[in-house]
Every structure is written in structure tokens, then in C-alpha cells.
Write a structure and sequence with these properties.
single chain; 321 residues; alpha/beta; Carbamate kinase; Alpha-Beta Plaits; eight-stranded mixed sheet; four-stranded antiparallel sheet; 9 helices; 25% strand
Length: 321
């Protein structure tokens, strides 16, 4: 039996026809190795934001049902375009909407939860040799009305499909090539984290890291589906999120909003040297605290005033020296 590979591509990866060509190359490279390939796509670029804006220009009282019917169009456009491209390149492909892919949810519009996935259509198309492209972010409720899954919904779709198909892992492709010790757009000299546990990734997501949404990590942990985050645009090794705890150490620093800083890593509650280092840093920097909490995987610090990026840079350098 050929291995099933589930690949998810975010909105920045499919934002135009040129990027769709790159995505197609990644997919066909895996398909040519004899793998069965399921692809989950987000809407192109800022399509969802544009659709919300246009809907609000029409009415200040939009029904949840109609808004979901509208928002689902973005993913349908991207999957259809990719299918058209792959077939033109000589690769058999088919696009499936959420309901065609058998994704059933509750009726909580704009934030629906997946209840079950009937994989029969996906498996039928895979068995016929096709690349199956599924719309992320959406499903249908018991009335067959379209629902959407909320922020990070395409990630959730991908991991849920990987679990339903008993795939060996799930690849999440985006414009970043993994998880770093801090936001590389803000902090210099950050390092890529090669491995994270599900718990660590959930902490990072809950603190505002935008690599993965919390719900998809929860599904990965529940069904033991390793999640691999990679870049669409380079061949660099990504970050593996699994139930394997490689070591008890600090993995990343996150600044949420303006005054909350969190340090993530397994076994932090027993890392007394680290705790002392952070407290000493706060004292010498003359920063005023409102709250300081420690759990097994996280130290969360709320400061009275805005924390400048240069202070996070200094703390990052101390911890990861």
C-alpha cells in the first residue's frame, strides 16, 4: 500500500499563479516518488479578509450562514486553480470542497469544530491515482450548510484529514521554514528549533506564535500525528512537532501584545538556574512586574509597562548564549 502524504499550503504560498507553480512542483516531486498525495489549501493571500470587508460594505447585519457560504469561496478558488494547473502539467488531480471530502462539523458558524470525516471519496480518488486537493477551513453541518473553522482552520483541516487517513505525518508549508527561538523579524541571531513536543507547541500557539494554530496541534497530539512545518520557498529542514520530548530545555521566547513575555520549554519549572537568570535580568533592567507565573512548560511574565524589542533581544541573548 502506497504511503499517504498530507500537505497543507497557506495563503502566502498560493497567493498568485507564480507561487502556485512552486506549490505544484513540490507536490509533483512527492507524487513522482509513488506516494498518494492529499493537499489542503488556504485561500489565496488576503482573500478572506477582502471577502469580509466586501460583505460588511453590503450589510451591517450579515447572517452567520451566509457569511460562511461567502468565506468558503476563497479556498474553493485556490483548490480549483491548483487542480487546473496540475492537470495541465500532466498530473491527474481533483479538487474537493469540504462537503465533497466528507468533513462534517457542528453548526457553530465561523468557529466550527470537526465532528467526523467520511474519507470514502478521498480514498476513492487516491486509489484512482489522483492527487486530491481539499479546501481547508470548511465543512458542512447536519443540514449540509457550509461552516468555517475560524482562525487557523486550514491547519486544523489538514491534521484532521491526516488523522482520518492514518497518514504517517502532516506537512504544513508556509512562508517560514520552522519554529525559532524568537520571532526572527524582531530578534537577531535566532535559532531554528528542530523538535518540539505537542505541549510546547500548544504553549507557543496560545502565546501568539503564528506558525500553527492551537486546535491543529491538539488534534495531532490526540491522534499521534507528527506535524512538520516547512517553507514552501526553500529546502531547509523544518521543525518536527511530536510526542517525543527530546530534552528539558528552553525552546522559544514569545512577546504577546506589548507587556507579556513567555519563555517556553519542557521542564522549566525545575530549571532553577533559568528562573534565577530571568529574575536577575528583570531586577538589573529595572522592569516593573505585574505577574510572574511558572508551569512545567512555560514562564509567563506580565510587565507594568511596554517592553521594547531591544529588551527581548537582551533576554534572548542571555538564555541562548
Amino acid at each position: 500500500m502506497n504511503e499517504i502524504m498530507v500537505l497543507k499550503f497557506g495563503g502566502s504560498s498560493v497567493s498568485d499563479n507564480e507561487k502556485l507553480q512552486l506549490v505544484a512542483k513540490r507536490i509533483t516531486k512527492i507524487y513522482d516518488k509513488g506516494k498518494k498525495v492529499v493537499v489542503v489549501l488556504s485561500a489565496q493571500g488576503k482573500t478572506t479578509d477582502r471577502l469580509i470587508k466586501e460583505a460588511n460594505e453590503l450589510s451591517g447585519n450579515i447572517s452567520d450562514r451566509e457569511l460562511d457560504a461567502l468565506l468558503s469561496c476563497g479556498e474553493q478558488m485556490s483548490t480549483a486553480k491548483l487542480s487546473i494547473l496540475l492537470n495541465y502539467l500532466g498530473y491527474p488531480a481533483i479538487s474537493l470542497t469540504g462537503w465533497q471530502a466528507g468533513i462534517f462539523t457542528n453548526n457553530n458558524n465561523q468557529n466550527a469544530n470537526i465532528i467526523r470525516i467520511d474519507t470514502s471519496r478521498i480514498l476513492k480518488e487516491l486509489d484512482s491515482g489522483k492527487i486530491v486537493i481539499v479546501t481547508g477551513f470548511q465543512g458542512v453541518d447536519e443540514n449540509l450548510d457550509i461552516t468555517t473553522l475560524g482562525r487557523g482552520g486550514s491547519d486544523t483541516t489538514a491534521v484532521a484529514i491526516a488523522a482520518a487517513l492514518h497518514a504517517s505525518n502532516c506537512y504544513i508549508f508556509s512562508d517560514v521554514d520552522g519554529v525559532y527561538t524568537a520571532d526572527p523579524k524582531i530578534i537577531k541571531d535566532t535559532k531554528k528549533v528542530s523538535n518540539l513536543s505537542y505541549k510546547e507547541m500548544q504553549e507557543l500557539s496560545s502565546e501568539g506564535a503564528k506558525v500553527l494554530h492551537n486546535r491543529c496541534v491538539e488534534i495531532g497530539e490526540k491522534f499521534k500525528i507528527p506535524i512538520i512545518t516547512k517553507s514552501t520557498f526553500n529546502e531547509e529542514k523544518g521543525t518536527l512537532i511530536s510526542d517525543v520530548i527530546e530534552e528539558n530545555t528552553v525552546k522559544s521566547i514569545i512577546k504577546k501584545e506589548v507587556s507579556r513575555v513567555s519563555i517556553i520549554g519542557n521542564g522549566i519549572i525545575r530549571n532553577f538556574d533559568l528562573i534565577k537568570l530571568i529574575i536577575d535580568f528583570i531586577k538589573t533592567s529595572k522592569l516593573e512586574l505585574l505577574n510572574f507565573e511558572i508551569s512545567d512548560t512555560k514562564i509567563s511574565i506580565v510587565f507594568k509597562n511596554v517592553i521594547e524589542d531591544k529588551k527581548i533581544q537582551e533576554l534572548h541573548k542571555l538564555i541562548f548564549k
